[in-house]
Design goal:
Length: 104
């Protein structure tokens, strides 16, 4: 069943624009962009690098291992060597809590 789960506090992003959380055994990267907070799978679709450790430019994150680029807003892969997207999660912020929408 799909549900909203709280994974962070909005205040967590005051000092850092990126946060990695683990939900149900999955690493999820949260990015605070100018227009809101976005969540995608932390594990690069090419291998196992952490996208939360990648360089962020506007709404794009570059994998720290081989340089594949992903759209933080959608999870879409934008460059080789990634050939598949990473999962993207809807995000909402309520009462200072950051929720992602997950399916069991
Ligand atoms: S692990 Fe991310 S591009 Fe290779």
């Amino acid at each position: 069943m799909a549900k909203w789960v709280a994974v962070a506090r909005e205040a967590d992003f005051e000092d850092q624009p990126v946060k990695m959380v683990i939900y149900d055994g999955e690493r999820i990267a949260l990015f605070r962009l100018e227009d809101g907070i976005y969540a995608i799978d932390d594990e690069c679709s090419h291998a196992t690098a952490s996208l939360a450790e990648g360089r962020v430019d506007d709404h794009i994150v570059e994998c720290p291992r081989h340089g594949a680029r992903f759209d933080i807003r959608t999870g879409k892969h934008l460059s080789f060597p990634a050939v598949t997207p990473v999962k993207s999660y809807p995000v909402k912020v309520e009462n200072g809590n950051v929720y992602i929408y997950v399916e069991d």
